[in-house]
Amino acid sequence: MARVYPLFSSSKGNATFIGTEKGGILIDAGVSCKRIKEALISREIDPASISAIFITHEHSDHIKGIRVLASSFKIPVFATAGTLRGMEEAGVLSGKFPVFELSGNGEEVGDLLVKAFKTPHDSNESCGFRIEFPDGRTAAVATDIG
Fold first, then answer.
1. CA-to-CA distance for 107 and 114, rounded, in angstroms?
2. Nearest to 67 by CA among 18, 101, 33
3. What is the pLDDT of residues 95-116, one digit of tens each?
4. Tens-digit pLDDT profile for residues 44-85
5. Cβ-contact 34, 61 below 8 angstroms
6. CA 55, CA 15: separation in Å to the nearest integer?
7. Residue 17: how many CB atoms within 10 A of its CB?
């Protein structure tokens, strides 16, 4: 069953859980690790079931909690080359969690396929994500495009 939970969505922080009963991913981690864990648990999602974090762009309201969350649970982080560069400049990439540049073919994470698409925003290399579920359904997350 497809599960999509917008956890936070504002200039104060962004994070969305997308997954199935087998686990899932986060799109952005723009609030503290503590707040993300609380939001997941309140929706009966084990924070340890997060298999990857995908970052739309490097602004603080999208990456604030990434260092602690990804380090605590050893969660791999995926982003475009430009976003990774911005995260490095912001001091977010600590070396305590794996980091991957997005491939053009999409990323398979558990039973999900995650594909990036370009979005217009005042950042290094903003993107949104299209997620394909095993049952053929799809969901997309695009932020800051208004």
1. 5
2. 33
3. 899 999 998 899 999 999 999 9
4. 999 999 999 999 999 999 999 999 999 999 999 999 999 999
5. no
6. 9
7. 21
pLDDT value, residue 63 = 96
pLDDT for the residue 50: 97
Q: How far apart are CA 144 and CA 146, in angstroms?
A: 6
Residue identified by tokens 């997350």 is 141
Sign of the dihedral defined by the CA atoms of residues 95, 40, 24, 60, in that order: negative
Tell me how far the alpha carbon of residue 28 is from its chain's centroid: 4
Number of helices followed by number of strands (H, E) in the chain: 4, 10
- Output the six-digit token pair for 134: 């095993």
103 vs 143: CA distance, rounded Å:
20
